[in-house]
Amino acid sequence: MSSLSSLMSVARDALTANQGALDIVGKNITNANVPGFSRRTALIENQVFGRGGPGSVLFKGPQRMFDRFAESRLLGESSLLGAARLRSEGLMGLEAMLAPQGSGSLGGRMGAFFGAATDLSTGANDPTKRAQFLARAEEVAQSFRIAADGLNARRSDLQQQAVDVTKEVNSRAKEIALLNGKIAEATALGDPVPDLHDRRDLLVREVAERAPVAVVRESNGMVSVSAAGASLVSGKESSTLSATLDAQGKLKFEMQRGNGSPLDITSRMTSGELGGIAEARDSDVAGMVTELDQLAFDFASAINSAHSAGFGLDGGTGRPLFTPPGAVAGAAATMSVSALVQGQPDRVAASASAAELPGGSGNALLLASLSSTPLGAGGAPGARFGALAGKLGTLQNSASNAQSLREDTVSMAETMREQASGVSIEEEMVDLTRYQRAFEASMKVLRVADELLEGLIRGV
After folding, report:
1. What whole-number distance in Å separates Cα of residue 132 and Cα of residue 115?
2. Domain check: are 55 and 112 in the same one?
3. Contact of 399 with 84, CB cutoff 8 Å
4. Confidence of residue 41 (pLDDT cuts 50, 70, 90)
5. Is residue 116 in a domain?
6. Does position 197 have pLDDT exceeding 80, yes or no?
7. 414 inside domain
């Protein structure tokens, strides 16, 4: 009787264990395509009833398949991809502001300006040619302003994007801290809560896409998360990440815990979306603005120097064609035709001397010749603009190539994670069959034991 009772207990435990395993397999199959889901396996242990007694099995619940190395690799690669992607997006479309196709580009309008100077040299006392020369000058100034406004607008957009991304980081950090508390409580009770672990790891991964992170896993189930070297989540508490501008107008990232003092982490924000935004805004686009300003300053200064030396039909001299830029910074955004000549074609200094008036064109020829004269320490106007547009193309290609590379490395890291934690439908179907057969065998043992026990009771 005792042996039959033990046999029934063994069969019962086996039924429970295999039923639990079947449930786990079913959940794996159901969630195979859910982002962040980690495969579960049934944790089944041997159980011995007394010395020399029959063995049984004990179902301990689901065991989450997790590889810390693979997860860490994925976090790092995700940060690098986030930086590459946001940098590429930050540079996208700038060519339409700086160098649109056709004569409407800055380069095309500078060429038209010098062409108008050449036309003016063939008819210095022609009011139409003088008016056309002033119109071409205004178009050049307008093109500089449009390009500068476009670049500065992109910097403003990137600043706002950085603020939005920090808000996304902060919301995820709060949820990670909340999950830390729940997981710690469940761990203390012996509950593995794999769903909470999956959710938290997915949130950490989303933070890693936005900022460089490091994760430390505690024995109580909690994780500590640092972003750019500063604590973002510690236990049940989270810090606040912010994005502002420093005294030089560059992005500044700070981390603050509660009412504590903010910690400047700008220099360590080298990857993640925030790192990519900062590089695009404060390195790539800012560099383009600086070079555009330098070109505007050199162009306006050279033209003004030549124009001021000439004489208008009214005999006036010493008048600049463009409003003299006070400094290199902002020269492109503020470029305009000087109020001393604007709307007054007679004041265009086409003559090299008063003796040439009214038909002298010596100064118009000088202005036209500046198209092939180096500006400042650089090349001629057309070459300077070509170099500027070429640099933009190089930056865009570099950013696009970096994004493609990081997409490949993330794909490799995801493959590593999938090998450790991903669900294979083929493997799950094999396990489903295996546990189903084991369940059926346990049921058969239970029926046999029940029949033997019934026969023993009836004395058969």
Report:
1. 10
2. no
3. yes
4. confident
5. yes
6. yes
7. no
Could you check whether the bond before residue 358 is cis, i.e. omega within 30 degrees of 0? Answer: yes
Has residue 418 been placed in a domain?
no
Q: How confident is the model at residue 278 (pLDDT cuts 50, 70, 90)?
A: very high
Domain total in the chain: 2
Is residue 182 domain-shared with residue 41, that is, in the same domain? no
pLDDT band at 3 (very low <50, low <70, confident <90, very high): low
Kindly state the average pLDDT of the residues 186-193. 89
- Over residues 233-242, the mean pLDDT reads 95
- pTM of the prediction? 0.86
CB burial string 73-89: b at 16+ within 10 A, e below: bbbbbbbbbbbbbbbbb
Q: What is the pLDDT of residues 301-336, one digit of tens each?
A: 999 999 999 999 989 999 999 999 999 999 999 999
